[in-house]
Structure formats: structure tokens, C-alpha cells
Amino acid sequence: MYTTLTPKPTSPNRGVPGKKCGTILLTAEELSNCRDIATMQLCANKLDKKDFFGKSDPFLVFYRSNEDGTFTICHKTEVVKNTLNPVWQPFSIPVRALCNGDYDRTVKIDVYDWDRDGSHDFIGEFTTSYRELSKAQNQFTVYEVLNPRKKCKKKKYVNSGTVTLLSFSVDSEFTFVDYIKGGTQLNFTVAIDFTASNGNPLQPTSLHYMSPYQLSAYAMALKAVGEIIQDYDSDKLFPAYGFGAKLPPEGRISHQFPLNNNDEDPNCAGIEGVLESYFQSLRTVQLYGPTYFAPVINQVARAAAKISDGSQYYVLLIITDGVISDMTQTKEAIVSASSLPMSIIIVGVGPAMFEAMEELDGDDVRVSSRGRYAERDIVQFVPFRDYVDRSGNQVLSMARLAKDVLAEIPEQLLSYMRTRDIQPRPPPPANSRPTPAPEQP
Length: 441
What we know:
The chain is of the alpha+beta class and 441 residues long. The protein contains 11 helices and 22 strands. Strands 11, 12, 15, 16, 18, 19 and 22 form a 7-stranded mixed sheet that branches. Strands 6-3-10-9 form a 4-stranded antiparallel sheet.
């Protein structure tokens, strides 16, 4: 498909009125459904010297050929400094990106000498195909690096070095849906902050205030996330806990009490059952403190530790106002849980700055404890206030929240499965029995 666009200037600064400002050519090609991932490693030998005071700083650029004969960059290797015999690190690339599933389509590879100012020097090129690359699973493949200009000018020109494909392997790329279709169950657990910093639930200023006209921020967050994630849980039974409250009748402080007041079976029937138990707890317990996250994280982690075959994956939703009293213990719990089939969602409600919650989210800096880093990022934190619709539309607010809160769960599940080399099971027959309910945390 080809589309030509000719932009029109909207102001004198963007072009000369009445004159053509340029042409943008858009090309598109239907992607194949190939989901294989190719991993390869290459090295080079006796590349041309390009640096006056040194050798060369070589890197490779891979191009996929398109249906119209053009080429599109699909991968760049790292630069290996000051050598004519570089060994590049292994890298992975989707076969779809490399050749769009056409194993005989040309793959062009350019070899460049890196320059700091971006004017990289061309050393040479060679072509291959996915089918030819795949032969390296059994033997090394050596390619001559040729520079067309040098070949034309020098009669005795042989090549500008060689590139050797050291290894090549192919693995299937599985998706979140593949695991769900294969029977992997998401087990959803809820933990709600009942500490006094949330304010008196009977007062409109409280984050727990139950207005007859609208849900509290806690209830909205619970409903938004739970109504989506419950579709991936076959039994629709959710353990639900509160923390940081004094319990009747003796006033015992608890950091992990069942919202339904049933220590033997903390399960609630669906999200509506969780909400009902939450509202009932607000009427019976006394908001207190301190705010401990570690007990409920460790509770879910103990259940997750018993499942290692990929059949179950645990998701813990913590809704809190952001004040945390056991940061050291919480980090330790997260680091330990990072090796388990488990993810933690933290939704912050209220006006707090949430620095501690941001620290627990390992997007930028992986959580660590006592010199030990989390094996993978399992925490997703979002502040609820960022998703509140200004017009007061609660449905829109919850939809925005759910979208971002659940965005990382599929990749976190996949990262666990990949590190454990667990492949999805074949989808069960339509008349098969449902998977037995897992042991609840």
C-alpha cells in the first residue's frame, strides 16, 4: 500500500506560501502471524581500518527487505571499540521483524565504523536470508564483507573483512493469551488500608467516606481493577484482607484480617462480595495503625510458592493512602516474592506524594534489600488522582485506572514463565472439566 501526502504550510515559518514543502511517502505491509524469536551472535575478522589514530569501532545494521524492494532497519548491534576483530553480544529479534515470516527474503547487513559525530564510516555489506542464517544451528557461516566502491576502484580488492555467524537459535514467542487459553488461572487477592491516616469514615473528608451518591476512592479503585481481572479467575472467589485496624471485641490490632470476618475462609464471591465485606468492615473495625504491607505480601507469597508449574499466577491489589511504616520489611518481601508467580498492584488514594510507593515500583530502579535485588519487576504503582475525570464521570475514571493498572500484568506473567522455561499448555477440549480451585492465601 502506498500513500503520498503533501503537507500544506500553516504559517510563514513552516514554508513559502504557494510552494511545495516536500513529500512524505508512507508504505505499509501486512505483518505475518509468525511469533518465533531468533537469537544470534556474530563476530568479524580483519575488518578495514577506518580510524586514523586507531583501528575501527565496528557495529552492524540489519535491514529487512520489503515487498517493493526497499530496505527497513530492523536491528543495530552495540559498538565494539578499537578493534578489527569484534565479537558482538548475542541479541534476539522477532522473525517477523527480520523477514516478516518469509524465510527466503533478503536480509542485508551493513558494517559501519562508529564516529562520535554520527557520520559513521561505511566498511562494507553482505546479504543473507533467514533460511541461510538458520543453518548456523549446525555449523558456522562466514560472510565476506564487500565495499562496492572499493571493488570498482581496486582490481586486486578481495573484501573488507569477514563476518562469522557463531550461533543461531529460534524459540517460540508466547503471549499472555496463550497461557490463559492453556488454563493458567489468575488468583486475585485484595488488601485495603484501614489505618487512621485515611480519616474517620463517617466524615466526608475521609478517603473511606461512604457517600449515598458516589463510591469512595477505595471502592472505585477496587471495582475498576477487580471487575476486569475477575474475568480471568474461574471460581470468582477472592481472598480480601484489611490491615492497620483494631478489631472487635478486644481491640486487637491486625495487619491482615479477613474482610468477611472469617479466618478459615477469607474468600468473597466476586467483586461485589468484596465490596460488601469492605463496607461491613468499615462499620465494625476501628481505623488505627501502623501501616504494614509485608504481612499481606508474605501471605500471598506463601500460597504462590506452592505453585511452580505455571498453572496459577497470583495478583495482589493493595489500596492505600501511601503512608508506610515497614519499608525495610516490605522491600524484603518484594525481593523474595519476585521469584514467585506473583505480581503486586499498588493503588495510591488521596493527596500524598507517594515517594515510598514510587520506590517500590521497580520500573526505573529495581527494588533491593540487604544487597539482594528483585529477580524481576513485580510491582506496579499508580496514584488514583491521576485518573479522576474532571467532569466527575466515575465510569471513565475507573476505565482509565484499570487500563494502566493492569498494563504490566501480562508482561510480568510472561517474564516469570520465560525465566522458568514454562510453555503454555494446549487449550483444553471444550467439554473438559474446569481447573480445581487453588489453595487460597
